[in-house]
Amino acid sequence: MPEQKTKVFIDLDDTLFDTKSLKAQNYLLFNEIPGNTGLLSREEFGELLNSELGSHKGTVFTPAAMIELLQRKGYNTEGLAKRRKEMMKSANKYFKPEIYQWIVKNFPREKYEYIIYSYGDPNFQHEKLTACGIEKDFDKILYISTDKVETLQKYISQNESFVLFEDKLKIVEGVHQRHPNATIYHVDGLRIGQYNF
Ligand SMILES: [Mg+2]
To answer: Are 81 and 99 in a shared domain?
Structure first.
C-alpha cells in the first residue's frame, strides 16, 4: 500500500487571499448607488450589511444576498451584479503568492496532500479561489458553512499529524486544543509564524 501523504490544510480568506482589500473595493462599488434617501455612502453600506447580513446574524454573506438587501431597501441596483462580476475579473491581485510559494517550498506538493478550506458561500468562495489561479493544485476543496474547527475534525483522524495554515487565532487555538501535535502556522498579512504553545 502506498504511504499516505501528510495533509496540509490551507485556509483561503485572509490566508491566501487578501479578503480585507476585496471588501474595501466592494464598498467602493456601492458608493454611488442612488436610493430613496440619496446616494449610499460607504458608512451606510457598512452599517446596512452589519445590521442584516453576516455570520453574527446567522447568515452567510453572498454578493447576491447583498444586492437583494439593497433592492429591498429601495436602492437602484441596476447593473450592479455585472459591475461586481467585472470587478472579480481582476481579483487575482488579492492572491498572496508570497504565502503560497512559501508553503509549496516547505511542503512540496509531491509529498503532501493539499486541502484548501474556506468558510462561506461556495459560489463566492469558488470565485475567489479561481481568481488565485491555484485551484488545480488542491487534492480537496472544502467549502464550510458551519463551524470550521468541527468541520475539519471530519477530515482528521485521532493521532494524525498534519499541517495547517490559518489567519484566525481562534481557529488556530481550536485546532491545537484538539490536536496538540499538529504543525500549525498563523498567517498575518504576509507574515507566517509557527504557532508556539
Ligand atoms: Mg481566514
So the answer is: no
The span from the CA of 40 to the CA of 130, in Å, is 30
Q: Give the pTM.
A: 0.90
Query: Among 90, 110, 140, where does a domain finish?
Result: 90
- State which residues have CB under 5 angstroms from ligand 1, the bound ion: 11, 13-15, 167
**Tens of pLDDT along the chain (197 residues)?**
567 899 999 999 999 999 999 988 887 777 777 877 778 887 888 888 888 887 777 777 788 888 898 899 888 888 889 988 999 999 999 999 999 999 999 999 999 999 999 999 999 999 999 999 999 999 999 999 889 999 999 999 988 999 999 999 999 999 999 999 999 999 999 999 998 76
User: Residue 150, Cα to own-chain centre: how many angstroms?
Assistant: 17
138 and 55 part of one domain: no
Domains identified in the chain, total number: 2
Question: Rounded to whole angstroms, how far apart are CA atoms 64 and 77?
Answer: 11
Element (H, E) at 90: none
The count of other CB atoms within 10 Å of the CB of residue 75 is: 22
Cα–ligand 1 centroid distance for 167 (angstroms)? 5
**Apex CA 152: angle with CA 146 and CA 153, to 5°?**
110
Distance 116 CA to ligand 1 centre (A): 11
What's the CA-to-centroid distance between 69 and ligand 1, angstroms?
Answer: 25
